[in-house]
Amino acid sequence: MRTTRKIGRSQNPEEAVALILLCVSGMRTETAQYSVTEEAERGSFVANIAKDLGLTGEDLLVRQARLVPEGEKQYFQLNHHTGDLVVREQMDREELCGQSEPCLVRFEVLLENPLQSFRAEVRLTDINDHAPVFLNKEIALKISESTMPGTRFLLESAQDPDVGNNIYTRQRSDGRRYAELVLDRALDREQQAEIAFSITAVDGGTPPRSGTALIRVLVLDINDNIPVFTRSLYKVSVMENSSQDTIVMVVSASDLDSGTNGEISYSIVQNSEENFETFKINAETGQIRLKKPLDYEETKTYEIDIQASDGGGLSAHCKVEVQVKDVNDNAPEVIITSLTSTLSEAAPPNTVVALFNVRDRDSGDNGRTTCELIGEQPFRITLLAADAYALVTSEALDREQVAEYNVTVRARDEGTPALSASKTLFLRLLDVNDNAPTFTQAIYTMMMSENEPAGRSLGRLSATDPDAGENARVRYALVPPPPGTLAVASLVSVDAESGTVRSLRPLDYEKVRSFEVTVRAADGGSPPLSAQAVLRVVVRDENDNAPVLLHPPPDSSAAGELVPRWAPSGYLVAKVVAVDADAGQNAWLSYELAKATEPGLFRVGLHSGEVRTARAVTERDAAPAEAHRAGAGPRAAIALCHCTLAVALVDGFSDAFHQLDQDAESGQQPKVAEEEIITTYLIASLGCISSLFLLSILVLTANTLCKARVRAELSPPSPSCYADGDFASDGVGGTGTLSSPFRYEMCLTSGSGRSEFQFLRPVLPRQHSNAEAGLDKDEEPLYDSQPACDGEAHAESTATPPL
Predict the structure, then answer these.
(1) 671, 687, 573: which is closest to 628 by C-alpha?
(2) Which residues belong to any copy of the Cadherin domain (predicted)?
């Protein structure tokens, strides 16, 4: 439902007239429109908002009614007691809205509890509070005395900021207002040179307002004299670096006429587009200025035609000649006429690399140039002709040191200040095969394990060549050994491209421990260059050999040993001797009892192989004979060998003989030889006891000396040592006994006092035939046979082991 309500007020300007339009739709926001005249005094009544909204003053207070202006300034105020809307600030319609119509001031009335918003608009009605105004209080017109009557002159219009009926003027068809001055009769300058009168503009307001301006008419004289220049030709010199707006020349002309006929204006006759773009002239003073900087290299002389015109249209002409002076404002130019971008590094000195010219657009000293190279490079500049130069090499080139050159040529003129320009030439050197390959090492040492399968990579050789392309492509090859030496080419190979070294067949450390071969690296140049290095291959030992028993012989039956029943603890029963063909830790042997019929009665030395009683023999050990199996093997316990010892506990040698004879021969020996065998055993036992006595004295002496030496040198004890010796291959007799004497190499340490002495390893043979080593006739056996006993005492002992 829409309700429209009008409220009328007095037409007096001091009272407000308000029109209210309320739009109510349920709980929606109400809209109201009011009007008030501009310039209404503060406190002027506009409308009663409380009544229009159906509220009381108390409601406005309770609901905290307030006005929210649309702009930043608040022009109205709400009385919360009466609900009246009054003017807070005077409003000027022309200031707020200008010529826009209608002029509206919008605001909102906000109520709380509940929150409601009512939009209101107050229209400002215009009053005639502005009079028409001329922009110029005095209007000057120049009319020639020869002007015909009836001539119309357009006048400046008055401006009135009011709107509506407050403005009344004549308008053109396009809506623009205008006023005209019409000449009623002919003018005579000699009778009256100046005419003055007023013009009034009146608006259509109530009451009407008006504005006045003074019109001054100057009667112009008839132009009967032409302007005259002081000179017909003006000459001037200007530096080419003169800035824009620089004064070039001032021309002057005069006219005998008065008024406008005597007023002269200057202009440039556009006889040249270049002149018009370069120069400009002040129409009143005759000053000629630059529009843009001059360039001597483009134009050296300018001729300008100047025209002087008076107010009557008469004119005269003169000429201005401008000479441009050169300044050093152009840097030299380096122009390349021929360039070789690639050059062989073998090029001799004085080889031409480039030809170039130098040009400077300036004149005189400003145009004279010199050339030079920047930096120290193997090049120089040669003068060929005027401003023509050649860039040549000055010394030998080396691509490996410098592969590319950026040659900078700088040209400098002789002006003040001097200007210069640079040109950079890129030159790349072509490679020549003048460098041989170089190995990264003189000697390469590579390791390989024995029995390693063929084709295994041992390492990689590396050689570099500072040349480029094919000249730097390195290929590897083995150098054939001299005749009569080991054919190492059958042992290893070298990949020609990568330098990878591979084995060709498995090697045996016991036959070949190391070998050397010469390797050649050759480049792909023509002719090729090469270098050599030594490749040393060291074979690393593997535990591939089982220990070999020397005593007792492995092919004999159980060896018999005699032990008296009164033997104390530690009694030496027998000594097991074994050797290992491997080296290093793989040749370190240890001994242990693998099986014994009486485990608690005997023990074997871990390193010495001596079988001793672990305790004293008692009556309870009544067994007539005991069999013991001793084993020997390296520390890694990978390869083992075994032997069997038969020990007889006897009261006398007769019993021992009978017992051993029965156990060993199993009744196969004839009884006729029993006495002869017993006698032999007795003699052997006596010899063994004597040898042990002498050996004990030697061991004690060596032990004392070794301890004294260790204390003196304060060196740490060595866990083991090795030495070389000679073992005869036929040292073991066919009867299973060890022939006397048997030679051992032993080392005594600070800790050998408990174990007396140790038999570490026998001395291997120093030479073997090629057939025994498994080599060809032309191959040499390569062995390393060096003792390794540091800080220890050495002694040789000759002993006959007990049987």
Answers:
(1) 573
(2) 122-229, 230-334, 335-439, 440-549
